[in-house]
Design a protein that fits this description.
The complex is a heterodimer.
Chain A lengths: L31 E2 L6 H10 L4 H16 L21 E2 L13 H10 L1 H8 L2 E6 L2 E7 L1 H5 L3 E4 H7 L1 H7 L10 H9 L4 E5 L9 E6 L6 E2 L2 E6 L4 E9 L7 E3 L2 E6 L4 E8 L5 E11 L4 E8 L4 E4 L2 E4 L5 E10 L4 E4 L2 E4 L5 E10 L4 E10 L6 E11 L5 E10 L4 E10 L3 H9 L4 H17 L4 H15 L5
Parallel strand pairs in A: 3-7, 6-9, 7-10, 8-11, 9-12, 10-13, 11-14, 12-14, 13-15, 14-16, 14-17, 15-18, 16-19, 17-20, 18-21, 19-22, 20-22, 21-23, 22-24, 23-25
Antiparallel strand pairs in A: 1-2, 3-4, 5-6
Helix pairs in contact in A: 1-2, 2-8, 6-7, 9-10, 10-11
Chain B lengths: L1 E5 L3 E7 L5 E10 L4 E10 L5 E10 L4 E10 L6 E11 L5 E10 L4 E10 L3 H9 L4 H14 L1
Parallel strand pairs in B: 1-3, 2-4, 3-5, 4-6, 5-7, 6-8, 7-9
Helix pairs in contact in B: 1-2
Classes of the chains: A alpha/beta, B alpha/beta.
């Protein structure tokens, strides 16, 4: 089973065909494809096509205005190559979402079969959403959970089925004006997951969403809302892949998470887009009293990722944790990190970031720790470790720490190094080849993060990292 | 080894362009009242086998504001570089503010670079110990803050 496409990058001239999930299906049977380019007409067309309530259409149009008004960010990665007029902003592959795997159109079924989704669902997942280009095409949830009141549906469905709940939370944590790409997402969003866990309910198995871009020059703009009521627990996992097209695609998601008092939400991302995809994502959680938010963020694919999952620790004793792993190969730039905003007393945040750059790849840690005037007795610890495997690669660390309270403890550490000659020598003196020794050191480097994944994902992740490292060291 | 001591706000850039050169940058500050300190410091390693240690420390009392913005840049080809940057701030009063930004930009592989930033307050245990020995609270606080800057 291999839901996460391994990429063999044994040579400097990365061969597209070695990205295991680089195949694509024809788009001739699609129910609807919007013309390339973005205008208020396209935004209205999407809204009309989805028969949305007027308030949502207005919110989309207002966001579109914000998107055009906001300048392209000049910090972070190079965004100048994105051709907004070449991108299809809405692609609907099927007429409707289906609850039964048998009803999924064959060419889409083949894709997800090859990614191993149905097997995984049977074995280890509590619920699945599969999004193909702009729409969720398949969804299921174990009956036991829906009986307890757990909602796991596509966000479009939530607009229709739970309009009040949706309106109460949508856009309240990440308003359209937050940044240029949040505005773009609010204007043209489609698909994504809507998760609601009632008070006191523990979802033991992970809920998984699978995001696949299939069409060339496609834009995928999913919108995810997770609401965990007091004392509930849920683990949400998302995986991403795309075909090997030479033209650029754009993925710009917005994820809003509301962690109730004493609730615990873990959000795991395994991002393995093909290396022409721009991945510009805004993710934020609001954590109430004694709540806990954990971001496990693994970035391996894409041309450029700019993603800083954050949490606003709004209730006394709230906790936030980010575990971030980035791998950048040739022509890749992973600009990732995390934001911790402490607003209440006795809040704690921990950010652990590990990155590996090789073959000219660039990884950047960019983070913010803000401890507000009310957040006395708060603690924050940030650790960033970077491994550089060759002379061509680059690694940066840009942390910002703002402290407005004197009864706090803040620690930040970062190191950048290569694989230690002594460690290598020791292992080789024990009979390991240089490559095997390097791999062992790299797995040791990432082990503390991989350990946090559910076992089945951890095994897969280790295998992937092994493949990534093949032949790249020495 | 060359040692530079910083005493005022400002933007400072030091480039290590000679192979094997070593540099130590030290900044010690005590802010009171309405004092504000803005320190932008860039250390550029442009040659192989260069090493630098940068240590910035501040004690902030009253309504003092400290902004430390330090960057280590290792240029391509500057291999076997060692660089360390620390930014430590001790906040003594409720109205004291601190911003610490330690940046790293590493464009060469065979390097060892690290930075640390810490913002905190006087350790309660240490304060208790000194006061149990008969020192007044302000005296004990002053002594501990002085010790923080001296190391």
């Amino acid at each position: 089973m291999s839901r996460f496409a391994p990429k063999h990058t044994t040579r400097q001239d990365l061969q597209p065909q070695t990205y295991e999930h680089g195949y694509s299906s024809p788009t001739t049977n699609y129910a609807f494809i919007s013309q390339p380019g973005l205008s208020s007409k396209v935004v209205e067309a999407i809204s009309a096509y989805k028969t949305e309530p007027p308030w949502l259409r207005h919110s989309r149009l207002a966001a579109y205005k914000l998107f055009t008004a906001k300048p392209i960010p000049t910090w972070g990665g190079d965004l100048s190559q994105i051709d907004y007029d070449a991108i299809h902003y809405y692609l609907k592959p099927t007429a409707a979402e289906t609850k039964s795997w048998a009803e999924v159109p064959p060419e889409i079924k083949i894709t997800f079969d090859r990614l191993g989704i149905p097997q995984a669902e049977r074995a280890v997942l509590a619920g699945v959403k599969a999004q193909y280009d702009s729409e969720v095409i398949y969804g299921s949830i174990k009956k036991m959970l829906s009986d307890q009141g757990v909602i796991f549906i596509s966000t479009d469905e939530a607009v229709k089925k739970y309009p009040d709940l949706f309106k109460q939370y949508f856009g309240t944590l990440i308003p359209a004006g937050d940044n240029k790409f949040a505005a773009l997402n609010t204007a043209v969003w489609s698909g994504g997951s809507f998760v609601y866990v009632p008070a006191g309910v523990t979802v033991t198995l992970p809920l998984q969403a699978y995001f696949r871009i299939n069409a060339p020059q496609a834009g995928q703009f999913e919108r995810t809302l997770i609401i965990a009521e007091a004392g509930s627990q849920v683990h949400y996992v998302e995986g991403c892949t795309a075909p090997a097209f030479s033209s650029a695609s754009l993925h710009s998601a917005v994820v809003e998470i509301f962690v109730g008092p004493g609730a615990r939400v873990q959000y795991t991302t395994i991002q393995n887009w093909y290396k022409t995809v721009y991945n510009l994502v805004t993710k934020r959680a609001r954590v109430e009293t004694e709540g806990e938010m954990i971001w496990t963020d693994f970035n391996m694919g894409s041309k450029l990722s700019m993603k800083y999952p954050g949490y606003i620790l709004a209730g006394k004793g709230a906790r936030g944790e980010t575990l971030s792993l980035a791998l950048a190969g040739p022509d890749q730039h992973q600009d990732t990190g995390s934001k911790a905003v402490h607003l209440a007393p006795y809040t704690t945040s921990t950010i652990i970031s590990k990155s590996i750059s090789k073959g000219g790849g660039r990884t950047s840690y960019r983070g913010l720790v803000n401890i507000g005037p009310q957040a006395h007795h708060s603690k924050s610890k940030v650790v960033c470790d970077a491994l550089l495997l060759d002379e061509l690669s680059r690694s940066d660390t840009y942390p910002t720490n703002r402290i407005f309270n004197h009864q706090v403890s803040l620690e930040h550490e970062a190191t950048v190094s290569k694989i230690g000659a002594e460690q290598l020598f020791y292992l080789m003196s024990r009979g390991l080849t240089e490559e095997a020794a390097s791999k062992l050191i790299v797995s040791g480097f990432v082990a503390p993060l991989v350990k946090k994944l559910p076992l089945e994902y951890a095994v897969e992740m280790n295998r992937l990292i092994d493949l990534e490292m093949e032949g790249s060291i020495g | 080894m060359k040692t530079i001591t910083l005493t005022h706000s400002g933007s400072y850039t030091y480039t290590l362009s000679q192979a094997g050169s070593e540099l130590a940058v030290i900044g010690r500050f005590w802010l009171k009242g309405q004092d504000q300190l803005d320190l932008h410091l860039t250390i550029i390693h442009a040659a192989p086998r260069t090493s630098a240690t940068t240590s910035l420390k501040a004690v902030v009392a009253g309504r003092g504001v400290v902004n430390f913005n330090g960057t280590i840049i290792v240029k391509p080809g500057a291999s076997q570089t060692n660089s360390f940057l620390e930014e430590r701030v001790l906040l003594l009063s409720e109205k004291a503010r601190a911003n610490a930004i330690p940046n790293l930009e590493i464009m060469s592989a065979d390097v060892k670079c690290s930075h640390a930033a810490a913002i905190g307050q006087i350790d309660a245990d240490q304060l208790f110990y000194l006061m149990s020995r008969g020192l007044s609270r302000p005296r004990a606080t002053h002594l501990l803050a002085q010790g923080f800057l001296d190391t």
